[in-house]
Design a protein that fits this description.
The protein has six helices and 13 strands. With 274 residues, the protein is an alpha+beta fold. It is globular, with a radius of gyration of 17 Å. The chain binds zinc ion.
Length: 274
């Protein structure tokens, strides 16, 4: 859902039903101070934008959601599948500098209220997970590598280990990412997805990989929705219909549409103290 009153924030309708319990949002390109390729609300510190502008943009985004930037936690994001359990001691890591970000990590989980988890994207999919029974949240970064590596499972397993989370209780949203319309992939990547879903009795590959003009197109939405379902989430508890970042590159950063010269929008999730 795009709200004209808060132009820097996109939210997922299913998750908005739980706004008393947790805050979430995906930033847009609108309302920031960065120039050039990064115009205007670039939140990525690692893309050669002016760091002071990025930090000011992070303040702008957090203030629209009424979140504390100094309590926020970020991670390095290397297209891997490691998930870190965030405690109070992690607050502030990676928010003002890359030097103290949580290294070699593509997912964060926490049960600590008022501790926003924030990851950065330009076409990859944000996976947002809420466990209403054990009051915990997770956020992970799923490009094709993270998806085929099953970071959805890593996130759920880490939440189970840390908080006894049962996937059947969880609510999940897949935020804006590149859609199947725009996401042409090579045969070697398609082969990895075919192998991953080969043993699944739940899903056929029909929706995940579609051949257009002799080239495969991947749906990160369908692949991650399938994985979340295979790992125990109920399909009506998964929202997987956000806009395509490449088709909407004036609203979101898109690595493909902008040919690599672009900024990053963020996804954030934060438990309320109730
Ligand atoms: Zn598209």
């Amino acid at each position: 859902m795009y709200n004209n009153s808060f132009p820097s924030v996109y939210t997922i309708d299913l998750l908005n039903k739980y706004r008393k319990n947790f805050i979430h949002g995906i930033s847009t390109r609108i309302g920031g101070i960065s120039d050039s390729y990064y115009k205007s609300l670039n939140l990525g510190l690692h893309v050669a934008d002016v760091p002071d502008k990025v930090i000011e943009n992070r303040h702008i985004f957090c203030s629209q959601l009424n979140l504390s930037l100094q309590n926020t936690v970020c991670c390095e994001q290397i297209h891997g599948t490691h998930v870190h359990i965030v405690t109070k001691a992690d607050r502030g890591k990676g928010t003002l500098s890359l030097n103290d970000t949580i290294a070699d990590t593509d997912g964060l989980v926490t049960d600590v209220p008022n501790t926003p988890l924030m990851l950065f994207f330009a076409d990859c999919a944000p996976l947002l997970i809420y466990d209403p029974v054990h009051k915990a949240v997770g956020l992970s970064h799923a490009g094709w590598r993270g998806t085929v590596g099953d970071i959805a499972a890593s996130t759920l397993h880490t939440m189970h280990r840390a908080y006894k989370t049962n996937p059947q209780d969880c609510i999940a949203g897949i935020g804006p990412c590149i859609g199947q319309c725009c996401y042409e992939i090579g045969d070697e990547v398609a082969d990895k997805f075919a192998a991953l879903f080969n043993d699944s009795t739940h899903f056929t590959l029909d929706h995940i990989l579609v051949k257009q003009n002799d080239r495969y197109h991947l749906s990160l939405y369908e692949a991650n929705k399938a994985l979340l379902t295979i790992h125990g989430l109920l399909s009506y508890n998964i929202a997987a219909e956000s806009p395509c970042t490449s088709c909407n590159s004036s609203l979101f950063y898109s690595y493909r549409a902008d040919k690599g010269k672009t900024g990053r929008h963020a996804a954030v999730i934060c438990l309320n103290n109730i």
